[in-house]
Design goal:
Helix content is 41%, strand content 15%. The chain is globular. The longest helix is centred in the first third of the chain and has 21 residues. The protein has two domains: 112 residues, Aspartate Aminotransferase, domain 1; 246 residues, Aspartate Aminotransferase, domain 2, CATH 3.40.640. The protein contains twelve helices and 13 strands. Helix 2 runs parallel beside helix 8. It is of the alpha/beta class and 365 residues long.
Protein backbone atom coordinates (compact mmCIF):
# COMPACT_ATOMS: atom_id res chain seq x y z
CA UNK A 1 0.00 0.00 0.00
CA UNK A 2 1.10 3.55 -0.80
CA UNK A 3 0.11 5.28 2.43
CA UNK A 4 -0.53 9.00 1.98
CA UNK A 5 -2.81 9.78 4.91
CA UNK A 6 -0.27 10.83 7.52
CA UNK A 7 -2.39 13.88 8.32
CA UNK A 8 -4.76 11.42 10.02
CA UNK A 9 -2.13 9.19 11.61
CA UNK A 10 1.35 7.97 10.84
CA UNK A 11 1.31 4.39 9.67
CA UNK A 12 4.03 1.78 9.65
CA UNK A 13 5.70 3.20 12.72
CA UNK A 14 9.43 2.69 13.18
CA UNK A 15 10.09 -0.86 14.44
CA UNK A 16 11.45 0.42 17.75
CA UNK A 17 8.05 1.98 18.52
CA UNK A 18 6.27 -1.35 18.23
CA UNK A 19 9.00 -3.03 20.28
CA UNK A 20 8.74 -0.46 23.05
CA UNK A 21 4.98 -1.00 23.32
CA UNK A 22 5.39 -4.75 23.65
CA UNK A 23 8.17 -4.46 26.23
CA UNK A 24 6.09 -2.07 28.34
CA UNK A 25 3.17 -4.49 28.31
CA UNK A 26 5.49 -7.20 29.60
CA UNK A 27 7.40 -5.13 32.20
CA UNK A 28 5.26 -2.22 33.40
CA UNK A 29 2.44 -2.02 35.95
CA UNK A 30 0.78 1.21 37.14
CA UNK A 31 3.09 4.23 37.65
CA UNK A 32 2.88 6.11 40.93
CA UNK A 33 0.76 3.43 42.58
CA UNK A 34 3.46 1.32 44.22
CA UNK A 35 7.14 0.89 44.98
CA UNK A 36 7.55 -2.62 43.60
CA UNK A 37 9.70 -3.14 40.45
CA UNK A 38 6.92 -3.28 37.86
CA UNK A 39 5.37 -0.04 39.14
CA UNK A 40 8.75 1.66 39.30
CA UNK A 41 9.52 0.49 35.75
CA UNK A 42 6.30 2.11 34.60
CA UNK A 43 7.11 5.37 36.41
CA UNK A 44 10.57 5.43 34.84
CA UNK A 45 9.12 4.82 31.38
CA UNK A 46 6.65 7.68 31.77
CA UNK A 47 9.35 10.06 33.01
CA UNK A 48 11.66 9.14 30.13
CA UNK A 49 8.88 10.15 27.74
CA UNK A 50 8.51 13.51 29.50
CA UNK A 51 12.26 14.04 29.32
CA UNK A 52 12.41 13.22 25.60
CA UNK A 53 9.52 15.59 24.89
CA UNK A 54 11.04 18.36 26.99
CA UNK A 55 14.33 18.13 25.11
CA UNK A 56 12.55 18.27 21.76
CA UNK A 57 10.04 21.02 22.57
CA UNK A 58 11.91 23.50 24.76
CA UNK A 59 10.35 22.99 28.17
CA UNK A 60 10.81 21.17 31.47
CA UNK A 61 9.69 17.53 31.96
CA UNK A 62 7.03 18.52 34.50
CA UNK A 63 5.49 20.87 31.92
CA UNK A 64 4.69 17.89 29.69
CA UNK A 65 1.18 16.63 30.44
CA UNK A 66 0.24 13.29 28.91
CA UNK A 67 -3.07 13.23 27.06
CA UNK A 68 -5.04 10.71 25.02
CA UNK A 69 -4.74 12.79 21.82
CA UNK A 70 -4.38 16.38 20.62
CA UNK A 71 -8.12 17.04 20.99
CA UNK A 72 -7.91 16.11 24.66
CA UNK A 73 -5.06 18.59 25.18
CA UNK A 74 -6.83 21.35 23.28
CA UNK A 75 -9.94 20.92 25.39
CA UNK A 76 -7.91 21.28 28.58
CA UNK A 77 -6.14 24.37 27.26
CA UNK A 78 -9.26 26.02 25.87
CA UNK A 79 -11.28 25.50 29.04
CA UNK A 80 -8.41 26.96 31.05
CA UNK A 81 -8.23 30.20 29.07
CA UNK A 82 -11.77 30.62 27.75
CA UNK A 83 -14.91 31.07 29.81
CA UNK A 84 -18.49 31.13 28.48
CA UNK A 85 -19.12 33.96 26.01
CA UNK A 86 -15.51 35.17 26.06
CA UNK A 87 -14.13 36.85 22.96
CA UNK A 88 -11.57 34.65 21.17
CA UNK A 89 -9.59 35.06 17.96
CA UNK A 90 -8.71 32.08 15.76
CA UNK A 91 -7.26 31.58 12.30
CA UNK A 92 -9.37 30.71 9.29
CA UNK A 93 -7.94 27.19 9.14
CA UNK A 94 -8.85 25.66 12.49
CA UNK A 95 -9.88 22.06 13.08
CA UNK A 96 -13.11 21.06 14.83
CA UNK A 97 -10.94 20.23 17.85
CA UNK A 98 -10.73 24.00 18.31
CA UNK A 99 -14.05 25.25 16.96
CA UNK A 100 -16.34 22.74 18.68
CA UNK A 101 -15.08 23.42 22.23
CA UNK A 102 -15.45 27.15 21.54
CA UNK A 103 -18.98 26.58 20.26
CA UNK A 104 -19.82 24.59 23.40
CA UNK A 105 -18.64 27.57 25.47
CA UNK A 106 -20.70 30.02 23.37
CA UNK A 107 -17.50 31.95 22.79
CA UNK A 108 -17.59 35.04 20.60
CA UNK A 109 -15.19 33.99 17.86
CA UNK A 110 -13.37 36.27 15.45
CA UNK A 111 -11.90 34.46 12.43
CA UNK A 112 -8.73 36.24 11.30
CA UNK A 113 -6.95 35.47 8.04
CA UNK A 114 -8.70 33.27 5.47
CA UNK A 115 -6.39 33.50 2.45
CA UNK A 116 -4.34 30.39 1.77
CA UNK A 117 -0.54 30.70 1.75
CA UNK A 118 -0.78 34.46 2.39
CA UNK A 119 1.23 35.45 5.46
CA UNK A 120 0.50 39.13 4.90
CA UNK A 121 -3.25 38.62 5.10
CA UNK A 122 -2.97 36.28 8.07
CA UNK A 123 -0.86 38.72 10.09
CA UNK A 124 -2.84 41.82 9.12
CA UNK A 125 -6.18 40.28 10.06
CA UNK A 126 -4.78 38.66 13.19
CA UNK A 127 -3.30 41.87 14.55
CA UNK A 128 -6.54 43.71 13.82
CA UNK A 129 -8.46 41.12 15.84
CA UNK A 130 -5.99 41.30 18.72
CA UNK A 131 -6.55 45.06 19.04
CA UNK A 132 -10.13 44.37 20.17
CA UNK A 133 -8.83 42.75 23.35
CA UNK A 134 -9.82 39.07 23.14
CA UNK A 135 -9.43 36.83 26.16
CA UNK A 136 -7.39 34.30 24.17
CA UNK A 137 -6.05 33.42 20.74
CA UNK A 138 -5.91 29.92 19.29
CA UNK A 139 -4.25 29.02 16.03
CA UNK A 140 -2.97 26.01 14.18
CA UNK A 141 0.66 25.72 13.13
CA UNK A 142 -0.18 23.93 9.88
CA UNK A 143 -3.57 23.50 8.21
CA UNK A 144 -4.53 19.83 8.26
CA UNK A 145 -6.38 20.28 4.95
CA UNK A 146 -4.05 22.39 2.82
CA UNK A 147 -0.66 22.15 4.50
CA UNK A 148 -0.50 25.95 4.92
CA UNK A 149 2.21 26.76 7.47
CA UNK A 150 1.00 29.79 9.38
CA UNK A 151 3.46 32.50 10.53
CA UNK A 152 3.25 31.34 14.13
CA UNK A 153 6.42 33.05 15.34
CA UNK A 154 5.05 36.42 14.23
CA UNK A 155 1.58 35.60 15.55
CA UNK A 156 3.08 34.64 18.90
CA UNK A 157 5.00 37.92 18.98
CA UNK A 158 1.78 39.85 18.34
CA UNK A 159 0.01 38.00 21.13
CA UNK A 160 2.77 38.94 23.55
CA UNK A 161 2.69 42.54 22.30
CA UNK A 162 -1.05 42.82 22.98
CA UNK A 163 -0.99 40.76 26.16
CA UNK A 164 -3.24 38.00 24.83
CA UNK A 165 -2.60 34.43 26.03
CA UNK A 166 -2.53 31.87 23.24
CA UNK A 167 -2.73 28.19 22.42
CA UNK A 168 -0.88 26.58 19.52
CA UNK A 169 -2.37 23.52 17.81
CA UNK A 170 0.70 21.60 16.66
CA UNK A 171 -1.21 18.56 15.39
CA UNK A 172 0.28 18.77 11.91
CA UNK A 173 3.67 20.30 12.72
CA UNK A 174 5.13 18.41 15.67
CA UNK A 175 7.71 16.03 14.27
CA UNK A 176 8.12 17.85 10.96
CA UNK A 177 8.68 21.49 12.00
CA UNK A 178 10.55 22.66 15.12
CA UNK A 179 8.22 23.60 17.98
CA UNK A 180 9.52 25.30 21.14
CA UNK A 181 7.33 26.27 24.09
CA UNK A 182 9.81 28.69 25.66
CA UNK A 183 10.81 30.59 22.52
CA UNK A 184 7.22 30.98 21.31
CA UNK A 185 5.96 32.09 24.69
CA UNK A 186 2.79 30.06 24.28
CA UNK A 187 0.55 29.34 27.23
CA UNK A 188 -0.18 25.88 25.87
CA UNK A 189 0.91 23.77 22.91
CA UNK A 190 -1.13 20.66 22.12
CA UNK A 191 0.00 17.83 19.87
CA UNK A 192 -0.94 14.23 19.12
CA UNK A 193 1.45 11.38 19.77
CA UNK A 194 0.26 9.29 16.85
CA UNK A 195 1.00 11.60 13.91
CA UNK A 196 4.38 13.23 13.37
CA UNK A 197 5.71 11.98 16.71
CA UNK A 198 5.28 8.41 15.43
CA UNK A 199 3.74 7.03 18.63
CA UNK A 200 0.68 4.81 18.97
CA UNK A 201 -2.90 6.05 18.74
CA UNK A 202 -4.31 7.11 22.08
CA UNK A 203 -1.33 9.27 23.00
CA UNK A 204 -0.73 13.01 23.03
CA UNK A 205 1.11 15.83 24.77
CA UNK A 206 0.05 19.16 26.22
CA UNK A 207 2.95 21.51 26.91
CA UNK A 208 1.96 23.83 29.74
CA UNK A 209 3.50 27.20 30.54
CA UNK A 210 0.79 27.90 33.11
CA UNK A 211 -1.25 25.77 35.49
CA UNK A 212 -4.20 24.32 33.56
CA UNK A 213 -7.70 23.65 34.81
CA UNK A 214 -8.48 19.92 35.11
CA UNK A 215 -10.83 18.48 32.53
CA UNK A 216 -11.20 15.24 34.53
CA UNK A 217 -11.16 14.63 38.27
CA UNK A 218 -9.79 11.47 39.85
CA UNK A 219 -6.85 9.58 41.23
CA UNK A 220 -3.33 10.73 40.48
CA UNK A 221 -1.27 8.66 42.92
CA UNK A 222 -0.38 11.89 44.75
CA UNK A 223 -2.01 13.95 47.55
CA UNK A 224 -4.65 11.25 47.91
CA UNK A 225 -6.06 12.75 51.14
CA UNK A 226 -7.18 15.87 49.27
CA UNK A 227 -10.48 15.99 47.40
CA UNK A 228 -9.21 18.66 45.01
CA UNK A 229 -6.94 17.87 42.10
CA UNK A 230 -3.26 18.64 42.87
CA UNK A 231 -2.23 22.23 42.24
CA UNK A 232 0.97 21.34 40.40
CA UNK A 233 2.00 19.88 37.06
CA UNK A 234 1.66 17.38 35.58
CA UNK A 235 -0.59 15.67 38.16
CA UNK A 236 -3.25 18.37 37.92
CA UNK A 237 -4.46 17.16 34.51
CA UNK A 238 -3.52 13.48 34.61
CA UNK A 239 -6.44 11.87 36.44
CA UNK A 240 -6.57 8.09 36.24
CA UNK A 241 -4.13 5.57 34.85
CA UNK A 242 -2.04 6.76 31.94
CA UNK A 243 -1.47 4.69 28.79
CA UNK A 244 1.92 3.27 29.74
CA UNK A 245 2.44 1.04 26.66
CA UNK A 246 1.41 3.91 24.41
CA UNK A 247 3.69 6.32 26.26
CA UNK A 248 6.59 3.87 25.90
CA UNK A 249 5.96 3.77 22.16
CA UNK A 250 5.70 7.54 22.02
CA UNK A 251 9.04 7.89 23.83
CA UNK A 252 10.60 5.60 21.22
CA UNK A 253 9.09 7.76 18.48
CA UNK A 254 10.53 10.90 20.06
CA UNK A 255 13.98 9.32 20.26
CA UNK A 256 13.70 8.34 16.58
CA UNK A 257 12.92 11.96 15.68
CA UNK A 258 15.93 13.24 17.58
CA UNK A 259 18.19 10.78 15.81
CA UNK A 260 16.86 11.37 12.27
CA UNK A 261 16.19 15.10 12.74
CA UNK A 262 12.86 16.93 12.62
CA UNK A 263 14.17 19.32 9.95
CA UNK A 264 15.27 16.40 7.76
CA UNK A 265 11.86 14.76 7.96
CA UNK A 266 10.07 18.03 7.24
CA UNK A 267 12.30 18.71 4.24
CA UNK A 268 11.60 15.24 2.86
CA UNK A 269 7.84 15.70 3.25
CA UNK A 270 7.81 19.14 1.64
CA UNK A 271 9.87 17.97 -1.34
CA UNK A 272 7.40 15.21 -2.17
CA UNK A 273 4.42 17.50 -1.59
CA UNK A 274 5.84 20.00 -4.09
CA UNK A 275 6.37 17.26 -6.68
CA UNK A 276 2.86 15.96 -6.08
CA UNK A 277 1.33 19.41 -6.52
CA UNK A 278 3.24 19.94 -9.76
CA UNK A 279 2.21 16.53 -11.09
CA UNK A 280 -1.45 17.05 -10.26
CA UNK A 281 -1.38 20.47 -11.90
CA UNK A 282 0.01 18.90 -15.09
CA UNK A 283 -2.96 16.54 -15.04
CA UNK A 284 -5.26 19.56 -15.20
CA UNK A 285 -6.62 19.37 -11.65
CA UNK A 286 -7.41 22.21 -9.28
CA UNK A 287 -4.56 22.03 -6.78
CA UNK A 288 -4.07 24.11 -3.64
CA UNK A 289 -0.40 24.87 -3.33
CA UNK A 290 1.84 27.83 -2.67
CA UNK A 291 4.62 29.20 -0.53
CA UNK A 292 4.69 28.28 3.16
CA UNK A 293 3.37 24.78 2.51
CA UNK A 294 4.19 21.64 4.45
CA UNK A 295 3.90 18.00 3.48
CA UNK A 296 0.19 18.10 2.66
CA UNK A 297 -1.53 18.85 -0.67
CA UNK A 298 -5.26 19.08 -1.35
CA UNK A 299 -6.95 19.04 -4.74
CA UNK A 300 -10.42 18.94 -6.27
CA UNK A 301 -10.94 16.21 -8.91
CA UNK A 302 -13.49 16.20 -11.70
CA UNK A 303 -15.40 13.38 -9.99
CA UNK A 304 -16.72 13.15 -6.42
CA UNK A 305 -13.88 13.25 -3.91
CA UNK A 306 -14.99 10.15 -2.04
CA UNK A 307 -15.42 8.26 -5.30
CA UNK A 308 -11.87 9.08 -6.35
CA UNK A 309 -10.50 8.08 -2.95
CA UNK A 310 -12.24 4.72 -3.24
CA UNK A 311 -10.83 4.17 -6.73
CA UNK A 312 -7.35 4.99 -5.46
CA UNK A 313 -7.82 2.59 -2.55
CA UNK A 314 -8.56 -0.22 -5.01
CA UNK A 315 -5.20 0.57 -6.61
CA UNK A 316 -3.44 0.39 -3.28
CA UNK A 317 -3.19 4.14 -2.59
CA UNK A 318 -4.50 5.51 0.71
CA UNK A 319 -5.63 9.16 0.78
CA UNK A 320 -8.40 11.02 2.55
CA UNK A 321 -11.42 12.72 1.01
CA UNK A 322 -14.07 15.08 2.33
CA UNK A 323 -13.96 17.95 4.81
CA UNK A 324 -11.25 16.45 7.06
CA UNK A 325 -12.96 17.60 10.29
CA UNK A 326 -12.16 21.20 9.33
CA UNK A 327 -15.15 22.90 7.67
CA UNK A 328 -13.81 26.33 8.61
CA UNK A 329 -10.68 25.72 6.51
CA UNK A 330 -12.81 24.63 3.56
CA UNK A 331 -15.02 27.68 3.95
CA UNK A 332 -11.90 29.86 3.87
CA UNK A 333 -10.65 28.15 0.69
CA UNK A 334 -14.06 27.95 -1.05
CA UNK A 335 -14.26 24.14 -1.00
CA UNK A 336 -16.98 23.67 1.60
CA UNK A 337 -19.43 22.27 -0.95
CA UNK A 338 -17.06 19.86 -2.65
CA UNK A 339 -14.43 18.99 -0.08
CA UNK A 340 -11.02 17.94 -1.34
CA UNK A 341 -8.83 14.91 -1.75
CA UNK A 342 -5.87 15.20 0.61
CA UNK A 343 -2.41 13.74 0.12
CA UNK A 344 -0.28 13.93 3.27
CA UNK A 345 3.28 12.62 3.50
CA UNK A 346 5.05 11.32 6.58
CA UNK A 347 8.47 10.43 7.93
CA UNK A 348 8.98 7.85 5.18
CA UNK A 349 8.13 10.22 2.29
CA UNK A 350 9.89 9.08 -0.88
CA UNK A 351 9.96 9.74 -4.64
CA UNK A 352 8.53 6.24 -5.17
CA UNK A 353 5.36 7.14 -3.25
CA UNK A 354 4.89 10.26 -5.35
CA UNK A 355 5.51 8.48 -8.64
CA UNK A 356 3.11 5.65 -7.90
CA UNK A 357 0.41 8.03 -6.71
CA UNK A 358 0.68 10.20 -9.82
CA UNK A 359 0.69 7.11 -12.04
CA UNK A 360 -2.54 5.93 -10.40
CA UNK A 361 -4.06 9.38 -10.84
CA UNK A 362 -3.10 9.51 -14.52
CA UNK A 363 -4.72 6.12 -15.10
CA UNK A 364 -7.94 7.14 -13.35
CA UNK A 365 -8.49 10.47 -15.09
Amino acid sequence: MIYLDNGATSFRKPPQVRQAVLEAMERCANPGRGGYPAAMAAAEQVYRCREAAAELFGCQPEQVALTSNCTHGLNIAIRTLVKPEDQVVISGFEHNAVTRPLHALSAKVTVAGQRLFDWGNTLEEFEKALRSGPKAAIFTHVSNVFGYILPVEQMARLCRQYGVPFILDAAQSAGAIPVDLQSLGADFIAMPGHKGLLGPQGTGLLLCARLPEPLLQGGTGSDSIRQEMPDYLPDRVEAGTVNVPGIAGLAAGLRYLRRVGVENIGRRERTQAEKTAAGLTRLGLKVFSGSHQGGTVSFVPSMDCDELAQKLAKRGVAVRAGLHCAPLAHKSAGTLETGTVRVSFGHDASPGQTQQFLAAMAALI
